[in-house]
Structures are given as structure tokens and as C-alpha cells.
Amino acid sequence: ARPPHARWPGGARVALQFVLNYEEGGENCVLHGDAASEQFLSEIVGAAAYPDRHMSMEGIYEYGSRAGVWRILREFEKRGLPLTVFGVSMALQRHPELTRAFVELGHEIACHGWRWIHYQGIDEATEREHMRIGMQIIKDLTGELPLGWYTGRDSPNTRRLVVEHGGLLYDSDYYGDDLPFWTEVEVTGGEKKPHL
Questions:
Q1: How much of the chain exceeds pLDDT 70, in percent?
Q2: Angle, vertex CA 70, rays to CA 30 and CA 66, nearest 5
Q3: What domains are there in the chain, each with its CATH number?
Q4: What own/partner pairs with CB < 8 Å and gap ≥ 24 does 142-147 have?
Q5: Were both Cys, which of 24, 36, 126, 188 would link to 64 (CB 3.0–4.6 Å)?
Q6: Does residue 28 contact residue 49 with C-beta atoms inside 8 Å?
Q7: pTM of the model
Q8: Cα separations (Å) of 35 from 22, 51, 53, 63, 107?
Q9: 118 with 153: CB under 8 angstroms?
Q10: Helices (H), 6-68
Q11: Cα gap 172→151, rounded to integer Å
């Protein structure tokens, strides 16, 4: 298949979106009241979920919020590049100075959910409520509702819930293409709505 011929602003031949996933502070952790520690997408290959503190895992997440993210921000600032932050709302709330820096530097904050947890087995009402909480926290922290969404650990209900929530221009929970595209989403009641 041939990709569509895009007409990018200014005659550009390519468009890139730089994204930073900010999850540090929203991951599974017994200190957050969770039953076990995080195990997903870690530098620890084959990490187990412990029903106790996982000091190595906590250290990895602590590094990201204390040092790693600031180094990345400085590099983007030095180069004058825009960044989309997929921000887990609980993480942004735990690190308000970082959230202020994202805003002051003019970066887009897209909602990455309230928690950095798997939604595959979570009931629809809870996922919907987590979506509402996540969006509200970002509005409270930044003064604006986010326009983008990315769960990352979504469920079969996620895209429909995003569309039903309303106000979001796009979601990034589909990995099957390298170009954005419109699709139709069937919402509760059977109506089909266009979604990017």
C-alpha cells in the first residue's frame, strides 16, 4: 500500500511528534495502596510483582522523576523543540514543579490516564471514572483540559470511552500505523462517531 501524500505546513517533507511518557508516581506500588509492585516496561527483564515494596523498581521510577525527565527537558529546551507529554495524572500531581515546567516550556500535556496500570481486566465504570479523574487533575494543574489521550495499557472499552468522554481531539492507543487516521467508533446506543 502507498501512504497518502501529506501536505505539511511550510512545505515540510516529514512531520515528527516527539513524545515523553511520564508515569513516575502513577505506577503500581504498595506505597500507593496497590496490592503489588510494578512489573511492566521496566529495565528489570521479567520483573515480578511483589506484594511488598520492590526497592529496585521504586529506584527506577524515582530516578525518572528526580533526574531523567529534567535532563530530557533541558535537551528539548536547548534545541527549541516541542514535546508531547503523555502524562499520568497521579504522577503529574505528585510532581507539580515538573508539571509547571512542562507548561512553562510550552509542551503539550496529553492525558495518559489517572494511573499507570493495566485496564484490560478493570470494569468499564472504573475505567470511565479513572478517565474523568485524570482529565480533571490535568485541568486543575494546568488550567486547561488536555486534547490528546494515551492509556498505553488499554482495554477493549478504552477508545469508545475516550469518544464518549468528549473534548479529546485524538488518542494514541493504536500501534498499527505510523500516520494518524480517522476511524469510526461505535458509542453506547449504536451511533458511530468519527475519531482521530
A1: 100
A2: 30
A3: 13-195 (3.20.20.370)
A4: 142/99, 142/103, 142/109, 146/108, 146/109, 146/110, 146/111, 147/108, 147/110
A5: 24
A6: yes
A7: 0.92
A8: 22, 6, 10, 23, 34
A9: yes
A10: 55-63
A11: 8
> Are 8 and 96 contacting, i.e. CB atoms less than 8 angstroms apart?
no
Tell the residue number behind the cell numbers 529534567, with chain if given: 70
Nearest to 150 by CA among 121, 125, 129, 175: 175
Is residue 143 classed as helix, strand or coil in its secondary structure? Answer: coil
Q: If you search the block for the grid coordinates 505539511, which residue do you land on?
A: 8
Residue 73, C-beta contacts closer than 8 angstroms, at least 6 positions apart: 83, 101, 102, 105
The pLDDT assigned to 4 comes to 79
Evaluated on CA atoms 142, 146, 152, 153, the torsion sign reads: positive
The amino acid sitting at 128 is R
pLDDT tens for 74-131 read 999 999 999 999 999 999 999 999 999 999 999 999 999 999 999 999 999 999 999 9
Contacts with 108 (C-beta within 8 Å, 6 or more apart), sequence order:
82, 83, 84, 85, 146, 147, 148
Q: Would you say 109 and 138 are in contact if contact means Cβ atoms under 8 Å apart? A: yes
